[in-house]
UniProtKB/TrEMBL annotation:
<dbReference type="GO" id="GO:0016616">
    <property type="term" value="F:oxidoreductase activity, acting on the CH-OH group of donors, NAD or NADP as acceptor"/>
</dbReference>
<dbReference type="InterPro" id="IPR036291">
    <property type="entry name" value="NAD(P)-bd_dom_sf"/>
</dbReference>
<dbReference type="InterPro" id="IPR020904">
    <property type="entry name" value="Sc_DH/Rdtase_CS"/>
</dbReference>
<dbReference type="Pfam" id="PF13561">
    <property type="entry name" value="adh_short_C2"/>
</dbReference>
<feature type="domain" description="Ketoreductase">
    <location>
        <begin position="3"/>
        <end position="176"/>
    </location>
</feature>
<dbReference type="InterPro" id="IPR057326">
    <property type="entry name" value="KR_dom"/>
</dbReference>
<keyword id="KW-0560">Oxidoreductase</keyword>
<dbReference type="InterPro" id="IPR002347">
    <property type="entry name" value="SDR_fam"/>
</dbReference>
<comment type="similarity">
    <text>Belongs to the short-chain dehydrogenases/reductases (SDR) family.</text>
</comment>
<protein>
    <submittedName>
        <fullName>SDR family oxidoreductase</fullName>
    </submittedName>
</protein>
<dbReference type="GO" id="GO:0030497">
    <property type="term" value="P:fatty acid elongation"/>
</dbReference>
Amino acid sequence: MGRSVLVTGGNRGIGLAIAQRLAADGNSVTVTSRSGEPVEGLSVVKCDVRDAESVDAAFTEVEQAQGPVEVLVANAGITKDQLLALMKEDAFTDVLDTNLVGAYRVAKRAVRGMMKMRRGRMIFISSVVGLYGSGGQANYAASKAGLVGLARSLARELGSRGITANVVAPGFVESDMTAVLSEERKAQIIGAVPLGRYAAADEVAGAVAFLASPDGGYVTGAVIPVDGGLGMGH
């Protein structure tokens, strides 16, 4: 029997690749999106992780359809890049509210069912930027670094209940966003990556699938980089 899985922000990009991989592994997977628009081959629920009532409603819908969430992948996130001297406070707080506080909201809602089952997997999608830093992304880096502290605290808090909490930190991934970069910028990025290429979204999904699998049952509080070596040592 597959487990009940929820992937926030799973309607595109890395989140979609993760959802498709976990579904292929035999799980019952629902993805959230702010629009609630259909995604081929997957169940979708409308959810805004900035709103606790929206999160609660989404979980209730998922629980009724496929049972209590046993695997949570907190992936929903946004960017609002700007140099600090020019960054408006809303740009900082909006990114934190979505990327970090949003992860808190979904984890808090998921833990109810997990504690009753005495098992569960929480997987937070961070970024190499959260550990390595990036000019013009103080808000994004702070939010992604915060996920590490959140996950490690939950690992200590919930381990006795059979619940694991881990972080996957992707580097640069082939996506619509990287596709529009200039050739010069692409060369600069790839030149900094020891493996000399972008990641495929499926490679990030593979790391998540491991943490969600029986093989990952004794891994908790870990940060697994999928970054081609870009952030090694951080």
